[in-house]
Amino acid sequence: MSELLVKNAFVIDPINEINGEIMDIAVKDGKIVESVKDSSNVIDAKGNLTLPGGVDSHTHICGTKVNFGRYMSPEDMRAGRGRAQKYMYPVSGYSVPTVYGNTYRYSSLGYTTVLEGAMAPLEARHTHEEFSYNTLQDTMANTLFDGNWAVMEAVADNDLKKVAAIVGWTLAAVKGFAVKITNPGGTEMWGWGKDVGCMHTKVDYFGVTAAEITDYLIRANELLNLPHSAHLHNNNLGKPGNYKCTLERMQRTPDLNDKRQTLYMTHVQFHSYGGSKWADFCSKADDVAWMINRKPQIAIDMGQVMFGKTTTMTADGPMEFNLYRLYNNKWSNHDVELETGSGIIPVLYSKKNLVNSIMWSIGLELALMTKNPWQCMLATDNPNGAPFVKYPEVIALLMSSKYRDEEFSTLQKGTEKRTFLSSLDREMNWNEIAIMTRAAQAKALGIVDLGKGHLGVGADADIAIYPIKTGETDPAQEYEKVIKGLSVTTHTIKRGRTVSRDGNCLVFGDNATIWVKPKIPENYDISKDPEFIKRFERYYTVNLANYPVEEEYLNRNICIETETEL
Amino acid sequence: MKTVRLKRKEIKNPYLPVEAERITTETFLGDELQDISIWSGNQEKRLEDLFTVDTEGNAETAEDVHIILSGDCSKVKRIGEYMTGGKITVEGDIGMHCGNFMSGGVIEIKGNADSWLGREMRGGEIICRGNAALYCGSGYRGEKKGMRGGLIHIYGDAGDFLGETLWGGKIIVDGNAGNMPGAEMQGGEIIIGKDAEIPGANMKDGVCIICGTAFDILPTFMLEEGKKNIDEFKTGFFEFSGDHANRKPKGRIYAKDYRIHE
Fold first, then answer.
1. What is the count of structural domains for chain B?
2. What InterPro entries does the annotation carry (chain B) (predicted)?
3. Which residues of B touch A75 (CB under 8 A)?
């Protein structure tokens, strides 16, 4: 079958502890092998930086709320337009581009696996439809359980196994990958115009707190042996003083899994705010990073904010309403029956704004102060902090304190008093960057065994070659070269096929969707539980039989079956 | 001075749109006529396929170029896009998006103009001796900033959404305007010779003068006391401030007569 040899590659592969060796990579049938016989198909990497294909463990690219962001911002569609080419459809949009726009741009950044951060179970079909056009990356979807009535009732009954049964059945039914908890309890309260604040407010009617919902879902996640841990967007996002809530959540989290973290906290930048109101708003990244450093059960992504126009979208409805009142621009709000909700607004992060300047600093502080790069992923919570096309700039900021100082001097005055970024002189190296952008993300998602995030024998042949010679480039000084080199790969190889060369896509692509199916014993099958069926028929507008997403909706299908402890 | 006469050739399908953003004064600077491609429907054509081209004289800068369009140009779009100087005269009707983003020069239209005339223009002058259709001098869909400078003068009537999201400059309409003139405007001036409906909805700043009747003034506008005189007209006008749906609005509507929306 098809064979490929990548010659003279300067490889950094943290999972296999390869840190900068010139070597050849042999590929056969989409997998990496020891050697190949046929030497006709050769790519000469010319000593350029070669990494495993990028993995983004938290992004928003497909699904109903992303789609709503597209049609509420026609002005965004005017930016970032691209013409049709032989294997590329025309694209438009900057912060929320069309699906093709996302997949082409990710591909030219060298990314081959992406995880949609929040999928409402009821709207899973739409997400999978859009996934099938996200052709150049393998896709996964976090499934929202923050305001799920059945889960909250089971938590109120202290029935952990029932929570696990509901989670397991729902994940398999909607072809989801992991448990996502967005502002637990808050979205349900938002249906009544309220919020839960920090973790100990009781949700109306159900009488459970955010802390309990998260605790139960973390444990249920481990009972089901899911590859990824619970994926949490904590309460109180974007409020001054919310770092206490973040610290308490980290403190509460037990260490339940020796292979990976027990809790993945996403966009922690938005959760590391000090002060009591916007007037005395300041950075508390030091406290949060200190806690992460002593809690191996926690992994975070930084949620870096970059300056410019973007669109924020999250299942955290009350937070978006507060933002809307701040910006007085457009706002969309959506309720998904019995499950979750969402809000969307366009924003402009400006250097002239003190709060935005501090937010920019906090993300970098978090990444630089987290000692172990395996615990901190590089992400912007695309497009909430910034569109993912800014990743090369974020990397350059992490690698060069000169670049940070130059940027810092252009910020609003007073930023230096509220942050301590200018006192940090850590400069990351290529190995740490490779960990933060692929190896740690694949490990945190639990897909290393599937062959993601590394270049060992048997791994998927997802390879990104960047036009950077690490020996000749000093990232601390020549940060512009780093940005330029990381923005467009010379070759992005997906399953042994070159899908993108110098930013041009060469194939229509053929992606796979990874989903999990916990093996749940018969007596815990919630879809046969008469009480659950009765409630479902009574409150949902869809029939139980119509709820699951059929496998025909998935283009290529990678199912992870897990053994459960039910 | 260089004069370029473009006459539209006979066409089989009069509904086929033509994307002619290349027809602008800067294109015709050189001595030799270059290959100018224009999309007609889904086919890429040369300028000579669609127009008979006749040039006279020489020009050093765009200021010295005068383009005269004749024949049926009612489906020819984006004439004079990003124009910086010189003059374009249209002997009849013109299609959509005429004078998009123009920053200098003059466009004179002897017939009617289609929608989006002078969209997001920054300077220069557009004179339309007939009527203008929808969204004259406005921003494009979702855009916050519409026309930012210059002058649009329409001798006939204007359609709905005249000067939507207007940011600066001046629009004069001698006849009636349709629904929602000056919606979301944040600066600039609109003068309407006759009647208009629902003027200035959600405006934050700017002036909208209606010399006839303003129908359906929104309840979020406040009538100021006493009739006001305006320099140019020297007669009594009712003055409204608004739109009070916004915080601290500075917008003004002046109307000879008005009806409140009920």
1. 1
2. Formylmethanofuran_DH_suC, Glu_synth_asu_C_sf
3. 140-144
Burial of A537 (C-beta count, 10 Å sphere; 0-12/13-18/19+): exposed
Chain B environment of A74 (Cβ under 8 Å): 140-143
Is residue B55 domain-resident?
no
Q: Which domain holds residue B133?
A: 115-260
Residue B219 belongs to some domain of the structure: yes
What tokens does B251 get? 């917008």
Q: Mean pLDDT, to the nearest integer, of A486-498?
A: 94
Q: DSSP character for A505?
A: E
Give the best residue of A75, A76, A94, A347 to mutate against chain B (max B CB count within 10 A): A75
| Set of chain A residues whose Cβ sits within 8 Å of the Cβ of B144 | 75
Report which of residues A295 and B232 the model is more confident about. A295
> Are A78 and B140 within 8 A, CB to CB?
yes
Residue B201: inside a domain: yes
The backbone region for A205, taken as left when phi is positive above 0, alpha when psi lies in -120 to 50, beta otherwise, is: left
Q: Judge whether B37 lies within some domain.
A: no
Chain A residue with Cα closest to B144 = A75
Contact by Cβ (8 Å): B245, B202: yes
HSE value, Cβ hemisphere, 13 Å, CA-based, for B135: 19
**Those residues with Cβ within 8 angstroms of residue B42's Cβ, 6 or more apart along the chain or in another chain:** none
Answer whether B49 touches A (CB < 8 Å): no
Q: What is the pTM of this model?
A: 0.89
Dump pLDDT digits (tens) for A171-222: 999 999 999 999 999 989 998 888 898 889 999 999 999 999 999 999 999 9
Quick check: bond before A425 cis, omega within 30?
no
Residues 6+ apart with CB under 8 A from B129: B108, B109, B110, B111, B155, B156
- Residue A546: phi and psi, rounded to 5, are -90, -5
